[in-house]
Every structure is written in structure tokens, then in C-alpha cells.
Amino acid sequence: MKTKLVPIILSSILALIFVACTVGMKESEKLVNEGVEYFEQGDTQKALEAFDKAIELDPELEEAWYNKGLVLYELDRYQEALEYYDKATDLNPEYFNDWNNKGNVLNALGRFNEAIECLDKALELDSKNPMSHNNKGNSLHALGKFEEAIASYDEAITLDSEIVEAWNGKAHSLFKLGRFEETITACDIVLELDPNHVAAWHNKGASLGNLGQLEEALACFEKAVQLEANDPTIWNDKGTLHKMMGDFQQAQLCFNKSEQLGG
């Protein structure tokens, strides 16, 4: 999960805030807050420019490096984002969000062992942060360490029982272990929290199919493609299910659709 941008908050007694929010702030700090505002308005280019100006004025301003890294991450420019999080963690090695987000970037780059190192550092600084446990679960899942991943997801869920990402991640890992009934339970919790969660409908359908509950599985796949019609994997799995049910014409239509979408 991506963490929100962090504006610089000027500490002051309440009576002075009304005079001007920027009184007493450096120009570089004002630029960081401007960048946050641009980002929240959807103008990523101006946000990046503001953070660049802030860094030019004050190369030691950790918030500027952190925030620019986050915007680059949102733009899927992961290698560039990593460079900014490297600098942010150098400037402030005690800020857990820097390590958490750096772990996310490394996950996106497929560097899962390094991601775990960063997430462990984040958890050293804040062991009660559910998203760091969740993100570590994602790293472990990607490495095929499904039991360990489930343990991390469970840590996240213990801290926040409504964390959709962790329930969904746990469902994925349970599915990989062939624990289909438990997968369905996890998916049902996801769907209670988010009825339009495509992956949960997909995973529930796949689990039901593996348990031989084909009609129920088909209903889940129908819901999944209704919510996300451009996912070739769902169409392929739906085709496989139709084939299992003996409906070869529908199966072929689904396989064709999957192929059209690049599956």
C-alpha cells in the first residue's frame, strides 16, 4: 500500500496559525507543501517540479526526497523512486515510512529479499504498523514462502481486522497451498469489506472450482468479469470452468476473449 504524502507542519501556538500558515517556514518547506497540494489535485508534474525546487534549495530536506519518491512510485517509475528513498533513508534512518515505501519500491522491482530487509527495518521502528506486516507478506508470497507470508498477513490482521489487503494476500497464499476452504473464508471476509473486490471473486471462484462446486464457482467468475472485463486470466479460468462443466462452446468463447486481451 502506498503511503500518503507528508506535508511539513509548522509547529506553532494556535493563535499564530491564522496569521499565515507559512509564517516561519523556509522557502523549501513551503515548496514541499505546495507539491503535496499539487499532487492531491492530480497535477503530478507540478508536484515533481515543486519537490525538485525544494531539494535544490535544501538538499537535506528529507520530506522533499520522500514525497518525490512517492510520486515517482505512483507513476510506476520505480527505479527513480528507489533513488529518492535511498536518499530519504540516509537523511532520516529513523522514519519508518521511508523504509516501508522503499520496501514497496523494491517489491515492484522484483527485489523481494531486499524489500524484506527494508520492511523489517520499518517494523523495528514501528512494530504496530499493519501495512508493513502486509507488505512483508507480499514479499514472502512472491518468494514462494507461503506459510511465512500467511504469518505476516495474520500479524497485520491482528493489528487491523479490516485490512482488506492482508485478507486478500492471505487468500492468495492459502490458495497456493491448496487450502481452498480457508481461501474461501478469507475471500468472504474481503467481500464483506469490499463487495467489488475483483481478486476476491476470482480467487473464491477458483477455490470453489477446485472443490468441485462448479455452479457456485461460475457465479463468482461471472461477478469478476462483470467488475473487470479486461483481465485475461479471469476469462481463461472461466473458460476452464466451462470446459469442466462440458460447455465447450462457452469455454472456447472465453479462451478467445482471453487471447484477445493478451492472455
Jot down its keywords:
Serine Threonine Protein Phosphatase 5, Tetratricopeptide repeat, 263 residues
Concise structural overview:
By secondary structure, the chain is mostly helical.
Describe the protein's architecture and organization.
- The chain has 263 residues and is mostly helical.
- It has a domain at 188-263: Serine Threonine Protein Phosphatase 5, Tetratricopeptide repeat, CATH 1.25.40.
- It contains 15 helices and no strands.
- Helix 2 packs antiparallel against helix 3, helix 7 (112-125) runs antiparallel to helix 8 (130-142) and helix 14 (232-244) runs antiparallel to helix 15.
- It is elongated.
- Mean pLDDT is 89; it is low at 1-21.
CATH topology of the domain at 188-263: Serine Threonine Protein Phosphatase 5, Tetratricopeptide repeat
- Beta-strand portion reads under 5%
Nearest-integer average pLDDT = 89
Task: Summarize the biggest pleated sheet.
Answer: none
Please state the structural category: mainly alpha
* CATH second-level architecture of the domain at 188-263: Alpha Horseshoe
Shape: elongated
Oligomer: single chain
| Number of helices in the DSSP assignment | 15
Query: pLDDT below 50 for ≥5 consecutive residues: which ranges?
Result: 1-21
Helix content: over 70%
Q: What is the H-and-E element order?
A: HHHHHHHHHHHHHHH
Rounded to the nearest angstrom, the distance between the terminal CA atoms is 26 Å
CATH class of the domain at 188-263, please? Mainly Alpha
